Amino acid sequence: MRRTARLLSGTAFAVAVAGLGATPAYGGGSGDTGGLEVYPSSAVPGGQVTVNTAECGDGGSAAGEAGAVGAGTFTLAPSTHEGDAIGQFRVPPSAQPGTYEIVATCAEDGRLVTGDLAVTLTSAREPVAPRGSVKTGVGGALGPDPVQTAAGVAALAVAAAGGTWLLHRRARGDGI
Length: 176
Fold this sequence. Notes:
Elements: H1 2-20, E1 37-39, E2 42-43, E3 48-53, E4 62-65, E5 73-78, E6 85-90, E7 98-106, E8 112-119, H2 146-172
Parallel strand pairs: 2-8
Antiparallel strand pairs: 1-3, 3-6, 4-5, 4-7, 5-6, 7-8
């Protein structure tokens, strides 16, 4: 048992350490210090995506291209946040699941900056509220009919009062 626990603990530690070396959600080739940040890195068809980069310099702008996913071109304009250039585009409703490369070309020097966007059919970021009811056979306190709820409360009150009266008579010795 102890040997199995050590083996499982060692495996979990190795997986955790390997996960620390994973690549970030923004792209760029090997050796790039920055890249094109895509947020969210995973989107659903019809979802809005924000793209930004600091690679084009302070006050720089860029031309974005999301044709791989079918969104076409968009503009990255200078932002007040740390000298980034920022832009947005919408994933087309017809986009198929997969990973797509998003490209930006800096206006000043023509440098290409890339990032990846994963398109999924379901979004892990958007919680879905449950709908409907659970059929358990037990009614709710505020059921669909307030008249039935009031009648049930009245019946419980009469039963409680009658039980208290009977217990009081028995305690006095009057009998039932």
